[in-house]
Write a structure and sequence with these properties.
Belongs to the G-protein coupled receptor 1 family. GO terms for molecular function: octopamine receptor activity. It is a multi-pass membrane protein. With about 325 residues, this protein is an all-alpha fold. It folds into 2 domains: about 70 residues, no CATH class; about 200 residues, Rhodopsin 7-helix transmembrane proteins (Rhopdopsin 7-helix transmembrane proteins, Up-down Bundle). Helix 5 runs antiparallel to helix 6.
Length: about 325
C-alpha cells in the first residue's frame, strides 16, 4: 500500500469520526475563520496529524486535529489583536495630547488674564472685574468639567461612581452658565459706557459690579447643583436604569428642566447681549455719520472762506516786497528795484 493510499484511508477515517462525534461543524468554522498562508495549509495540517497518529487511535487523532486547528486560529487572531492594540494605543496617545493641550491652554491663558489685572493698577477698573470673574469660571470649566470629559474620551467609559457623575454634570452646568452670564454683564457695562457715558460712573460702580457677579454665581448654582443632586433634572425611568448601571454616566434631562435651564443659561443672556450690542452698533453708526458731517462742514467752511478772500495773503506779501524807488539803502534788498 502506498503512502497516498494510507493518507486517503486515514482521511476517510477522520471524516467518519468527526461526523460521529459532532465536531465537524466547529472545526469547519474554525478553519473558515483562520486565514491560511497557502491553499494546502489545512490539508498539510491533517496529513501531519495522520502521519503522527496510529490507525487505531481515532480519539487521539480527533483531539490532536481539533487542538491544532484551535491553536492555529487563536495564534492568527492574536496576531490581528496585537495589530489593533497598536492602533488603539496610537489613538489614545493622540487624544491625550490634544485634550491635555486644550486643558493646559485654557488654564494658563485665563491665569495670565487674572495676573495681568492684579499686577497692573491701570487695569483695575470695573469692567475688568467681570473679565476676572469670567476667567475664573473658564479655569474651573477646564479643571472640573474638561478633565472628566477627557477621561471618558480616553477610557471609553465612565470610571467613577454616581456621586462623581452628578458632581461632573453640576460643574459643567454651573460654570458654563456662569460664563454666558458674565458675557451678558460685560455687554451691559459696554452699553452704558457707549450709549450713556454721562450715566456710566453712577450706574456702574464697584459695589454694583460686586452684586452682579455674586448674583451670577448664585443663580448658576441654583439651576445646577440643587436640581441635579436632588434628581429633579431627569426622568424616573432614567433613575431606575441608573440604579441598575451605576458604572455609567449619562446626561438625560426631563422637559421642564430642559426648558428652565436652557432659558436661564442661554436664551435670556444671549437675547440680552444681542439687544445691547445692537444698540451699540446703532450708536457707532450714528457717531460715524456725525463725524463725517463735521468733517464735511469743516471742509466747506474753509472753501467758502478762501473763495470770499482770495487775495488776502497775496496782498500782504506784495506790500512787504514793494519798496519806494526813492529810498535806497545798501543793506536793504528790494526785488522790484
Amino acid at each position: 500500500m502506498s503512502v497516498s493510499d494510507i493518507g486517503s484511508e486515514r482521511t476517510s477515517l477522520l471524516e467518519r469520526q468527526l461526523n460521529t462525534s459532532g465536531l465537524s461543524a466547529p472545526i469547519a468554522m474554525a478553519s473558515a475563520q483562520a486565514i491560511t498562508p497557502g491553499p494546502t495549509t489545512f490539508g498539510q495540517l491533517l496529513l501531519l496529524n495522520i502521519v503522527n497518529t496510529t490507525p487505531t487511535d481515532e480519539s487521539t487523532l480527533v483531539d490532536r486535529t481539533t487542538l491544532a486547528l484551535i491553536n492555529m486560529t487563536a495564534d492568527h487572531n492574536g496576531a490581528i489583536g496585537e495589530g489593533y492594540d497598536w492602533i488603539d494605543i496610537l489613538v489614545i496617545v493622540i487624544k491625550v495630547i490634544l485634550l491635555s493641550t486644550i486643558i493646559i491652554a485654557a488654564i494658563f491663558g485665563n491665569l495670565l488674564v487674572i495676573i495681568s489685572v492684579c499686577r497692573h493698577h491701570k487695569l483695575r477698573i470695573t469692567t475688568n472685574y467681570f473679565i476676572v470673574s469670567l476667567a475664573c469660571a473658564d479655569i474651573l470649566v477646564a479643571v472640573f468639567a474638561m478633565t472628566f470629559n477627557a477621561s471618558v474620551a480616553i477610557a471609553g467609559k465612565w470610571l467613577f461612581n454616581m456621586t462623581v457623575c452628578d458632581f461632573w454634570n453640576s460643574c459643567d452646568v454651573l460654570f458654563s452658565t456662569a460664563s454666558i452670564m458674565h458675557l451678558s454683564c460685560i455687554s451691559y457695562d459696554r452699553y452704558y459706557a457707549i450709549i450713556k457715558p454721562l450715566d456710566y460712573p453712577m450706574k456702574i460702580t464697584t459695589k454694583r459690579v460686586g452684586i452682579m457677579i455674586t448674583f451670577v454665581w448664585i443663580l448658576a448654582a441654583l439651576i445646577s447643583y440643587i436640581p441635579i443632586f436632588t434628581g429633579l433634572y431627569t426622568t424616573e425611568e432614567y433613575m431606575k436604569e441608573r440604579l441598575k448601571h451605576p458604572d455609567e454616566c449619562i446626561w438625560e434631562v426631563n422637559i421642564p428642566y430642559a426648558l428652565v435651564s436652557s432659558t436661564v443659561s442661554f436664551w435670556l443672556p444671549c437675547g440680552f447681549m444681542l439687544a445691547a450690542y445692537y444698540q451699540i452698533y446703532k450708536e457707532a453708526i450714528k457717531q460715524e455719520k456725525f463725524i463725517y458731517k463735521s468733517q464735511q462742514m469743516a471742509v466747506n467752511t474753509n472753501t467758502n472762506h478762501h473763495n470770499h478772500h482770495p487775495r488776502n495773503s497775496t496782498d500782504a506779501t506784495n506790500s512787504i516786497q514793494v519798496c519806494p524807488k526813492r529810498l535806497t539803502y545798501p543793506d536793504i534788498h528790494c526785488p522790484l528795484l
